Amino acid sequence: MAKVSPQWKQAKLTAFPKRFKDPMVHTSNRPISLWIFGFLVLLPCISGGTTMNMNMSCVWYPSLDYARVAMECSGPLVTKVPTMLSSDLKLLRLTGTSITSLDSTSFEGRSLAELTTLSVSGGALARVAANAFCPLPALAKLDLSLNQLDHLDALSFKCNKHLRTVNLSDNPSLHHLPLLCVPADPERFNCERLADV
Fold first, then answer.
1. Are 58 and 75 in contact (CB under 8 A)?
2. Which domain covers residue 121, as residue numbers?
3. 84-89 long-range CB contacts below 8 Å, 24 or more apart?
4. What pLDDT, in 10s, does the model give residues 71-130?
5. What is the pLDDT of residue 51?
6. For residues 181 and 165, what is the distance between their CA atoms, to the nearest angstrom?
7. What CATH number did the domain enclosing 59 receive?
8. Per-position DSSP letters for 154-167, written without gaps between them
9. Cβ–Cβ under 8 Å, residues 110 and 86
């Protein structure tokens, strides 16, 4: 077999257009535009995949009392209060979730002015901070049972003047209840110690 001189190899390569030497460079923009399109399609899954999964974990909840204004978001993929919730919701159930804490920003930016019943139960909830439920002005019933609650701030319900029922049962880590304040009227707070967790 005859040897090819290095000069001939170089001459042969330069005889072809540059696009054949570099497979990523093409005269048409099709491969580059396909790559950009694929990236844009996958971007929500990469950056906001958690949000997509959380919102996909929400379904309308069959309730005789609330008909089409009740929703349930459940499962370990739910790590915070979902953002895409209907503004006319009256009942929201967050069951078996990975939500570990609720604070004043947890419901912020969600239009839930008509929500009267909230259940955050059977999950990983451990802490409830002050003013956690302020964005829920109509809240009357709250279920925080079957969690790992170990901290409940005394001002958790500061803004909820319609709140009548709070279920804290089956929270084995909650040994001490603070003096909880619920507004009796706009001018003063009615503070009482909850008994029988």
1. no
2. 49-193
3. 84/55, 84/58, 85/58, 85/110, 85/112, 87/111, 87/112, 87/113, 87/114, 88/114, 89/114, 89/115
4. 999 999 999 999 989 999 999 999 999 999 999 999 998 889 999 999 999 999 999 999
5. 43
6. 13
7. 3.80.10.10
8. TTTTTT-TT--EEE
9. no
